[in-house]
Amino acid sequence: MKRYDLIVVGxxxxxxxxxxEAAKKGMNVIVFDENAKPGGQLFKQIHKxxxxxxxxxxxxxxxxxxxxxKEAEDAGVQVVLNATVIGLYLDREITxxxxxxxxxxxxxxxxxxxxxxxxxxxxxxxxxxGVIGAGAAQTMMNLHGIQPGKKILMLGSGNVGLVVSxxxxxxxxxxxxxxDAAPRIGGYGVHAAKVARCGVPFYxxxxxxxxxxxxxxxxxxIAKVDQNWQTVPGSEKHFDxxxxxxxxxxxxxxxxxxxxxxxxxxxxxxxxxxxxxxEYGETSVKGIFVAGDVSGIEEASSAMIEGRMAGIAAAxxxxxxxxxxxxxxxxxxxxxxxxxRQGMFGPENKGKLLKKTEEGCDISMNLLENGYLAEEExxxxxxxxxxxxxxxVMECTQNIPCNPCQDACPKKCIKIGENITSLPxxxxxxxxxxxxxxxxxxxxxxxxxxxxxxxxxxxSVTLPYEFLPxxxxxxxxKALDRGGNEVCRAxxxxxxxxxxxxxxxxxxxxxxxxxxxxxxxxRAS
Length: 525
Hints:
The structure is a single chain. By secondary structure, the protein is of the alpha/beta class. The chain folds into three domains: 2-117 and 250-340, FAD/NAD(P)-binding domain; 120-246, 3-Layer(bba) Sandwich (FAD/NAD(P)-binding domain); 375-524, no CATH class. Helix content is 22%, strand content 28%. The chain contains eleven helices and 28 strands. The protein has helices spanning 13-24, 61-75, 134-143, 159-170, 189-196, 255-259, 300-317, 323-340, 365-370, 404-408, 437-441; strands at 2-9, 29-32, 78-80, 83-88, 93-98, 101-112, 116-118, 131-133, 151-155, 174-180, 202-204, 206-212, 219-224, 237-239, 243-246, 250-252, 264-267, 272-275, 288-290, 391-394, 414-415, 425-426, 447-455, 458-465, 476-480, 486-496, 505-512, 521-524. Strands 1, 2, 3, 4, 5, 6 and 19 form a seven-stranded mixed β-sheet that branches. α7 (300-317) runs antiparallel to α8 (323-340). It starts with a strand and ends with a strand.
């Protein structure tokens, strides 16, 4: 039996972060992961993260994964892949299946960072080939370069459903509809808005009745649900699809903790069965700590912070760090974690229908029910202004933790303040130079540059654009509004790409002057 100071189960964002912090204090650390590649979900995540610099905001998930792996290697962390931990016991002993062999290890401390698994829902035909989870779709697209299907219906309007819907379109798939039994969109409005302006319709208060097909999915029928979650007869709608993608939540993979005898609780707000922990992330079994989704479903940014906290707590418990240093480090990390848990999507607001933003603006009901801002709603937000010449229009209308736009602007035109959940506002005393850094930096693709006086009778609109192939300068096509409807003809007058933009291209289109506040997407003819 081999012995280590610290054994980490799971090489995802939280597990790697925990291992790095512990190894930095001189601990002998080993990480086991059942997958062929380390990094967990990070390498599926091609979108930019939210938060601030300390949360790795505006950096794409796979790049964060690369950085974590490099940091772990430099810290001397040993990572063993294709290694499934099949047993965890009271005395901090584990059994691991590696190939055809079972190995035994003992840790002075163990951190369980096993993450979460996708939930499924059942309906007639749900076992047909072509019904897949959103995580599986991401794996196929972003790890293996394979389209999950050609025509896809997405069930679930949380952040996972919204983000994966957009990524499906980036992969060249057609998303025919986004469906959710809930009456309101569950994820960030900015994620919904970038899906809606591509022309994807939202069907809220709807659910799947039947997946159609004999040996594979060939279609799907949905229907409206009433307030008792029962389908409404006569409301059925049919779609020809070859794939049904399910994004209906996650459940903590906490089986090992239960096996070890850790005290558990059923906590719906955290996603299901989770361990009861103290302030240091230690379970009821001394020396067994947890981090990430296994202790409650959150974003990857939170998981990385929780991992660092667990690594620090384990280091202190084993005498590699004194309590004073531990408390100082944990206090700073707790502050960073709490900032991510603020705003309208914070834990205390889960399930609530908020009517006002922190600034007193009306929260857009059209956004919550249809995925985009209604035209009459847009002007009330502090980031939406109309001035002479080029200027940013920030259609960020919910209090979510994110502030890269403030740091990106070289002329300090954008202000958010110390509270990263505040809505971005335009500083009237600053002069926009049209560099587009704010457009590229926005993780939610919610910032546009508008010039109503671009030419006589014409305006220009600079859009974030993350599709290939890029249209060429001079290309003509359609300008689509926030709801994905064609509003006018448009011509591409400029394309900006830069290493600093990190694959968010800036597409400037020329549209009639009265379309400047309507045109939000370009589709080539």
